[in-house]
Amino acid sequence: MIRTAIIGAGGIAVKHAQAINRIPELDVAGVLDPNPERARVIADLCGSRPISSLDEVLGKIDMIYLLTPPSKRVAYAETAMRAGKHVLCEKPLAVSLEDACAIRDLAEQTGVLFMTAFNMRFRPGYRMLQDDVLSGRLGEIISVWSHRVGPGSGFGTPLGDSWRTDPDLVCGMAIASLSHDIDMFRGLGVEIEMVAARVQGVKPELPAFDNNAQVVLGLAGGRAGVINASWSAHLPTSSRGVVGTRGTALIRGDGFFDFVEHRIRNDEMEYPRSTWLNDLFDAESYYTENRHFADCVLQRVQPDVTADNGVEALRVSLAILDSSRTGQTVQIVRSSS
Prior knowledge:
This protein is an alpha/beta fold. The chain folds into 2 domains: 2-118 and 287-304, Rossmann fold (3-Layer(aba) Sandwich), CATH 3.40.50.720; 121-281 and 313-331, Dihydrodipicolinate Reductase, domain 2 (2-Layer Sandwich), CATH 3.30.360. It is built from 9 helices and 15 strands. A 9-stranded mixed sheet has the order 14-13-12-11-7-10-9-8-15. Strands 3-2-1-4-5-6 form a 6-stranded parallel sheet, sandwiched between helices. α3 (74-82) packs parallel to α4 (97-110), α4 (97-110) packs antiparallel against α9 and α7 (178-187) crosses α9. The longest helix has 20 residues, at 307-326.
């Protein structure tokens, strides 16, 4: 049995609680949130109880779910890891690179298992695209793209209806959401070396809230990538894909994250091949993600996605913001942990 505590009871906690309920080895000892009513909702969902501090259960648990807004994670992460507790942490890992590196370094120093919860890595559609690339079916990568737009946070809703548009917690789409696209590319085995970007916000009363981004990526090996994303588009649609020397593949859908088709053609195919998917952005991929981390804890093996993946995604997000602010192409400078 793995005993855990949930820290943060916002919307994403519902998906994790639903997943936890399907994993018999997981038991929730307590749910912590500044809003006791939200904590009660999640606690009731997973047969637990609200708690007023992590110390109430720290000696009784094996791991934590760190689901707070990203600017509120360092102290909880440090408390848990110094006590030898494993951590499943939502993305983005943090808002500042300093905080992200501190979390990663502490995970390495304490030897606990730490997973940055990049949910896209566990989606069937993405795994099909990843297999196309890593199997060599497409040959060498020439370029990659991610296009996803639609009505997102702040669209038609009052500011402050979630942490994403709360003036005290806002970090903008480039950090909060482009981390998905960045990590998806990195999961295909491509490393981002430079960015040139334009980032825009359409809420003048909240200037820190960027919700549109157009990004050109310089990838290792002279390759290129593009990210086009919007939270303020009236028509939702998405497409992610890879052009290779021997073939091209994509996954697409009618929403930000829904995948309804995988499509591929390479040199060995006379015609394109389509596989119709029912890969919706729902609890199923959260179950797969949570099942993976639970197995890692039980077997004491490193998860497929670590704290370092969170650091590197944030590094690129911050470079995107820097490029937009300065109007210059920004080189990604990495340092060893």
